[in-house]
């Protein structure tokens, strides 16, 4: 396992101490500690850890609300560490985007797989989001190029392959993406 920068939050100092020791023994670096969810969220935004381990029941802001904010900002995966396993809490944690839910009391052998799975799932999510972004950009480019081809075909009586080739050649000559060339054609046709 690689060394992770970890943020821990629990309102019980003894639990934080035990957790910090376990994480340190596992080769991780605890970069921040908090006794409430609001402080945990602030530290997550500031420190950008690789993982946040949060207790559920904490003052000011509970761990699930803090986890929801951390997850929505895509800061890091959140592992919930709690003594409460009620269905309502588990469902809230799931809906908040939590990557793991570990019950107290826990051992290092309980913690290790939870951390590994949380980190792995978070990285998979990041890769999927990047792929979706790339696909959306490619689709948007294709739509713009198609509209620009239609303008060239209508204005100059070109066939589709020739209209595409002109956009492509202009892109290569100017060293600009085809999307930019297509957008310029569309802008010029609107004038």
Descriptive account of the structure:
The protein is an alpha/beta fold. The chain folds into two domains: 102 residues, Response regulator (Rossmann fold), CATH 3.40.50.2300; 60 residues, Winged helix-like DNA-binding domain superfamily/Winged helix DNA-binding domain (Arc Repressor Mutant, subunit A, Orthogonal Bundle). Helix content is 63%, strand content 13%. It is built from seven helices and five strands, in the order βαβαβαβαβααα. It has a five-stranded parallel β-sheet with strand order 2-1-3-4-5, sandwiched between helices. Helix 2 packs parallel to helix 3 and helix 3 packs parallel to helix 4. The radius of gyration is 25 Å and the shape is elongated. The N and C termini lie far apart (59 Å). The relative contact order is 0.09. The model has no long low-confidence stretch (mean pLDDT 92).
